[in-house]
Amino acid sequence: MSTERARIEIRGIEVEIVRKDIKHLHLGVHPPEGRVRVAAPLRLDDDAVRLAVVSRLAWIRRKRAEFEGQDRQSRREFVTGESHYFEGRRHRLDVVESTGPTGIRLRDNAWMEMRVRPSADRDGREAMLYRWYRARLSERIPELVAKWEPRIGVTVAEWRIRRMKTRWGSCNPDAGRIWLNSGLAKKPVSCLEYVVVHEMVHLLERGHGDRFRGILDRVMPGWGVRLEELNRAYLPDEGWERVEAPTGDPPPSGTRWATTRGPPGDQAGQR
Ligand SMILES: [Zn+2]
Q1: C-alpha of residue 105 to centroid of ligand 1, in Å
Q2: 200 Cα: distance to centroid of ligand 1 (angstroms)
Q3: Angle (deg, nearest 10), helices 210-219 and 122-152
């Protein structure tokens, strides 16, 4: 299906327009930041789209206010009863104060037990959970990289896990290095695998253009399903996680994409 993308500003709101061979216009406001996206039939011109958006401005503003409200509630406290996710499953946290061993274990499919020192504060509990996420990812990633290196025809010199606010992954093609977001531990493994493959393909092709898509389609047919799941598995209480399908467009600033850009301080991969 041929698609065409554009961005216009309507009454101070940036609207992303995707024109497709469809019959009806679809308007969506997407968390976390209330991005407005319109899928419009090819025959509709900008003025018609503008009109459709203006007629729904009140609704758009209401949705955005809702997301902001969710965002404010999104600060986790890491206390007993709170929901936390691992590999796509929701677990209830059970915080147990311990003077003995500390750490996290999954007690069953429902409970995640966190043994902490009585003195552990919120930040300490959060840090423990992220150390545990990193450790779980560190067990998964080597087998995924090894599985995909021959299929894609690249060698990953190094992979790293870090907390990133706006990206699932990034890479430095010159160094053969990929970075993965520690939050991926919350997502189904199929989503982690998609991000690993996406970043590995960037070692061959930096952009998100036809060549990138061509390689992705060849090595991982049906990758779109995984990407949708990554987006569908979006959890409002997490506040920030969303990635876009690769397209030929450069990512606009402030939008959540998995891009080729390295994290701050790792600039070599940027063009
Ligand atoms: Zn990318």
Answers
A1: 33
A2: 9
A3: 90
